[in-house]
């Protein structure tokens, strides 16, 4: 069908009292950002609904994007017709026919914001219902749980008809809950943690540690491509890469094997915290899940978390691996995550890391290192890039070779 | 020059050759190497695979590169035999397959496998009843070609697929060497097929390269054991220049496929209608939907096929006695033999095979020369 607009219903944000306006404005901004390459669209974020006027743009492409915008409860593609009963009748029949299969039931649901219109809601329901019953043989009316609901909204500027309600992504508009930093590796968990943070309205920046030549260029590209997979939910994402080779070599050389992991992680968290501070990020997110690997015990978290007072938030902390994988598959990061490149978390993994490291020990071993100097040098090599939705970084996924093929 | 022997081989397209030479000179790393040169080559290899997969509407990991149609056929048949011999030793094929299939089958027979060769009717089509009767509990493979290389008959692939839906364990192979780019992709890449083999040089890619579709989850023993390339199923350093060139050739082939097919069908029809008028002509290819749009096989009774080929050659028109593979061996066409065409007529058969670049003007010239030659042969006949 040639829809003329998409009507968007807000989610939780309608309960946000005084902040409501700010939430709606932000959602409007995010929607415009997501749909920036549809030049003819007009997005109107009103108090109770958002109206996206299509002006000829492809409704299904627009709706596919909308499903990735947090803060939307659901939306309906609609058709605007003149305030003329005959025109409404015609469109109503076409819309029902689009989804009608033998034996289905329907009802009409009219709302009137313009009370000057000549028919009231009941009269409109009767008129359209009767017309559809006469026009489509076999169709029946059912008030409770019909198969098809045709919504009719009578407004001053026209009459809007819709027959479908499509679920949105829920959550809160990205950016309304402040800005945080996600420690992204190449694994399955951290992108999922990022997705969940975005879902609650957090704007994210990514920090990634890489250790050439122990980790390959491909591992770095993989983290970037994972970031690009999250971008549709977030708009553009800043990707901060931190060279970590010297720190890892030093830790490996100077710290007892059992505490390698703990001390390394303390370094990562320190650096992330310093960057976050500088970049006005209010919290650090990571993909830790309790009990999954040796470093992910409460003892280990205590020993690592010690280096910062910033909140370290772990959205997947209590999820089972299967639950994490399910989300990863849903958001399209899983297949990438399982590509076998060594990342900085897997190299130098000691054969038997301490599952219950002690905080004093970790502090003691660390104190033997030139912590500040190491961190300073790592920070000097930091590179920040901006990643947008759909970008490809892995060579086998990029279209570098388009002209050859 | 008029080249009407495209089922034997095709001319490498200039754009394809360009890719071949660019890749040879600038992306020559081994895709298995870990360094950047290898990574770059690996990237191109996988991009080529992805492009081919997309063009066929299948997944990237279902495409395997081979050295061509013959290897593909050998691999599916012998690989299935090795993989599945504990479940059964019976294979089914048709009596008009390409020698790559028939001779692979013959080799397996010597090793104790049993093969049923389905007969064909007078138009070169197998019957479903024969297939159904041939199926046994120990059948492990059904191998059927999409388009016969000698007369252009299209086998009833969808119906065969429907029959085999009831036998989910049997491997179903389609030799699509002559079928790609001929407007029947939906029949070939059907819901039931497990393996499909292709050859690059039949669609303007270089020699020595081909590929196979293998349905995800189907098992096939490798014939080339070695360094583990192609997921350890087909070892040997990948022929990257040819692979990239083939991916491009396939894209070019399938661009505006319907239009190209319609043009070839029109040329075929033109020749058909102008040749069949002569009383001594016997036509084996037909114009209906059960025949490919690019192959026309006929005889002038009493004149040997090779005589006709050479006579046309004097006018710079190149055609072939049935299949190129057997044409130098003075054996009669296997397909026509299976169609029970008398030997005397079968030895006269010639084949016109078109590609998307042939024109109606070439066909007019062909018909003009045909007329002339027909009169000339009438004197000695």
UniProtKB/TrEMBL annotation, chain B:
The keyword Endoplasmic reticulum does not apply. The keyword Protease does not apply. SUPFAM superfamilies: PLP-dependent transferases. InterPro entries: Aminotrans_V_dom (IPR000192), Aminotrans_V_PyrdxlP_BS (IPR020578), Cysteine_dSase (IPR016454), PyrdxlP-dep_Trfase (IPR015424), PyrdxlP-dep_Trfase_major (IPR015421), PyrdxlP-dep_Trfase_small (IPR015422). It comes from the Bacteria. Its cofactor is pyridoxal 5'-phosphate. GO terms for molecular function: cysteine desulfurase activity; iron-sulfur cluster binding; metal ion binding. Keywords: Iron, Iron-sulfur, Metal-binding, Pyridoxal phosphate. Residues 2-366 form the Aminotransferase class V domain. Belongs to the class-V pyridoxal-phosphate-dependent aminotransferase family. NifS/IscS subfamily. This is Cysteine desulfurase. It comes from Liquorilactobacillus satsumensis DSM 16230 = JCM 12392. The lineage of its organism: Bacteria, Bacillati, Bacillota, Bacilli, Lactobacillales.
């Amino acid at each position: 069908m040639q829809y003329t607009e998409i009507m968007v219903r807000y989610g939780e944000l309608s309960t946000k009292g005084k902040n409501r306006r700010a939430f709606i404005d932000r959602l409007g901004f995010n929607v415009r950002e997501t749909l920036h390459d549809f030049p003819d669209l007009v997005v109107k974020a009103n108090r109770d609904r958002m109206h996206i006027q299509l002006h000829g743009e492809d409704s299904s492409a627009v709706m596919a994007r909308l499903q990735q915008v947090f803060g939307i409860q659901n939306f309906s593609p609609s058709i605007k017709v003149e305030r003329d009963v005959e025109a409404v009748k015609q469109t109503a029949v076409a819309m029902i026919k689009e989804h009608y299969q033998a034996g289905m039931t329907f009802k009409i649901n009219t709302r009137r914001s313009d009370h000057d219109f000549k028919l009231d809601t009941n009269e409109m329901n009767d008129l359209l219902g009767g017309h559809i019953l006469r026009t489509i043989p076999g169709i029946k009316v059912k008030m409770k749980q019909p198969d098809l609901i045709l919504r009719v909204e009578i407004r001053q500027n026209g009459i809007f008809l819709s027959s479908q309600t499509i679920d949105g992504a829920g959550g809160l508009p990205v950016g309304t809950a402040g800005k945080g930093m996600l420690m992204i590796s190449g694994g399955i968990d951290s992108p999922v943690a990022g997705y969940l943070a975005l879902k609650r309205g957090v704007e994210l920046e990514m920090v990634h540690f890489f250790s050439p030549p122990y980790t390959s260029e491909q591992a770095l590209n993989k983290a970037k491509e994972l970031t690009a997979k999250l971008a549709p939910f977030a708009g553009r994402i800043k990707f901060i890469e931190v060279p970590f080779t010297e720190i890892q070599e030093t830790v490996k050389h100077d710290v007892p094997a059992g505490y390698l992991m703990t001390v390394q992680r303390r370094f990562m968290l320190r650096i992330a915290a310093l960057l976050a501070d500088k970049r006005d990020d209010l919290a650090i997110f990571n993909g830790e899940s309790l009990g999954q690997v040796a470093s992910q015990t409460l003892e280990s978290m205590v020993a690592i978390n010690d280096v910062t007072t910033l909140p370290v938030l772990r959205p997947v902390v209590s999820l089972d691996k299967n639950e994490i994988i399910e989300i990863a598959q849903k958001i399209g990061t899983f297949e990438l995550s399982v590509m076998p490149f060594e990342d900085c978390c897997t190299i130098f993994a000691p054969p038997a890391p301490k599952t219950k490291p002690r905080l004093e020990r970790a502090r003691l071993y660390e104190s033997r290192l030139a912590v500040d100097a190491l961190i300073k040098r790592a920070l000097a090599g930091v590179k920040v890039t901006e990643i947008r939705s759909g970008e490809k970084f892995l060579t086998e996924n990029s279209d570098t070779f388009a002209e050859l093929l | 020059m008029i080249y009407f022997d495209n089922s034997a081989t095709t001319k490498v397209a200039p754009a394809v050759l360009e890719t071949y030479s660019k890749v040879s000179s600038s992306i020559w790393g081994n895709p298995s190497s870990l360094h950047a040169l290898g990574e770059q080559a690996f990237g191109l290899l996988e991009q080529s695979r992805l492009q081919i997969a997309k063009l066929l509407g299948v997944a990237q990991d279902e495409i395997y590169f081979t050295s061509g149609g013959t290897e593909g056929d050998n691999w599916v048949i012998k690989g299935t035999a090795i993989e599945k011999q504990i479940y059964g030793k019976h294979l089914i094929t048709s009596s008009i397959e390409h020698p790559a299939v028939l001779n692979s089958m013959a080799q397996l027979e010597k090793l104790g496998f049993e093969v049923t060769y389905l007969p064909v009717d007078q138009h070169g089509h197998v019957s479903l009843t024969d297939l159904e009767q041939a199926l046994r509990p120990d059948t492990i493979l059904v191998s059927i070609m999409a388009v016969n290389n000698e007369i252009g008959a299209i086998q009833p692939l969808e119906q065969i697929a429907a029959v085999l839906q009831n036998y989910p364990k049997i491997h179903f192979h389609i030799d699509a060497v002559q079928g790609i780019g001929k407007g029947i992709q939906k029949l070939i890449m059907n819901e039931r097929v497990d393996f499909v083999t292709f050859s690059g040089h039949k669609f303007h890619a270089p020699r020595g390269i081909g590929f196979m579709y293998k349905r995800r989850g189907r098992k096939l023993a490798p014939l080339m054991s070695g360094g583990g390339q192609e997921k350890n199923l087909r070892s040997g350093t990948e022929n990257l220049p040819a692979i990239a060139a083939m991916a491009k050739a396939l894209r070019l082939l399938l661009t505006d496929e319907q239009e190209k097919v319609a043009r070839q069908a029109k040329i075929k029809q033109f020749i058909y209608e102008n040749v069949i008028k002569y009383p001594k002509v016997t036509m084996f290819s037909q114009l209906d939907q059960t025949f490919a749009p690019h192959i026309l096989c006929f005889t002038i009774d009493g004149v040997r096929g090779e005589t006709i080929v050479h006579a046309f050659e004097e006018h710079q028109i190149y055609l072939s006695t049935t299949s190129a593979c057997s044409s130098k061996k003075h054996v009669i066409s296997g397909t026509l033999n299976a169609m029970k065409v008398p030997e005397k007529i079968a030895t006269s058969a010639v084949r016109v095979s078109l590609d998307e670049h042939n024109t109606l003007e070439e066909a007019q010239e062909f018909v003009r020369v045909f007329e002339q030659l027909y009169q000339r042969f009438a004197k000695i006949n």
